[in-house]
Amino acid sequence: MPKLLYRFCRTLNLDPDNPQACDHWRRAADGTLYQVAGDYRFWARWPDGATLRGDVDFSKYTEGENVSFTKPR
Questions:
Q1: Cα separation of 9 and 22, whole Å?
Q2: Which of 8, 27, 30, 68 is 20 to 30 A removed from 50 (C-alpha atoms)?
Q3: What tens-digit pLDDT sequence spans the chain (73 residues)?
Q4: What is the pTM of this model?
């Protein structure tokens, strides 16, 4: 989710980490690449239940560069 929308939910007193309260979260389709720019809040979940949340600034990457997240141990 763009960080701007994350902060917007918080401003409205909606829990930005709750997809039912803040409906700006979008699920990425398996195997699909997306082009994004700017600051984002991410929430990654693996099939075994492991999760990783954080912020990423995509402006630090070059155009066409793939970004991946590593499952926590």
A1: 6
A2: 8
A3: 999 999 999 999 999 999 999 999 988 877 788 888 899 999 999 999 999 999 999 999 988 888 889 999 8
A4: 0.80
